[in-house]
UniProtKB/TrEMBL annotation:
<comment type="similarity">
    <text>Belongs to the bHLH protein family.</text>
</comment>
<keyword id="KW-0804">Transcription</keyword>
<keyword id="KW-0805">Transcription regulation</keyword>
<protein>
    <recommendedName>
        <fullName>BHLH domain-containing protein</fullName>
    </recommendedName>
</protein>
<feature type="domain" description="BHLH">
    <location>
        <begin position="17"/>
        <end position="66"/>
    </location>
</feature>
<dbReference type="InterPro" id="IPR011598">
    <property type="entry name" value="bHLH_dom"/>
</dbReference>
<dbReference type="InterPro" id="IPR036638">
    <property type="entry name" value="HLH_DNA-bd_sf"/>
</dbReference>
<dbReference type="GO" id="GO:0046983">
    <property type="term" value="F:protein dimerization activity"/>
</dbReference>
Length: 82
């Protein structure tokens, strides 16, 4: 009987450790997402005071702008490249 009780206690402790590590993992993920969000705010011009939804929309627009700029620069480079 004593052996079974010890096994149950070990299982419960292991389950608690798993839950704690999952919480730590979520906290780390949340923190890293927050850091990425702040870094994105610094990269996108004019995004300091925007909400998250507006920031993501502006980011998509900025990506499209940069893509079109790259296309134009490549076209110019092709004209001047021998």
């Amino acid at each position: 009987m004593k052996r079974n009780q010890n096994m149950v206690i070990k299982v419960r402790r292991t389950a608690c450790r798993g839950a704690i590590s999952r919480r730590r993992g979520r906290r780390v993920l949340r923190r890293s997402l927050h850091d990425l969000h702040e870094e994105l705010r610094m990269l996108i011009p004019g995004s300091r005071t925007l909400s998250s939804e507006e920031l993501l929309s502006l980011t998509a627009d900025y990506i499209m702008f940069l893509r079109s700029k790259v296309k134009v620069l490549r076209a110019i480079a092709m004209v001047y490249m021998p």
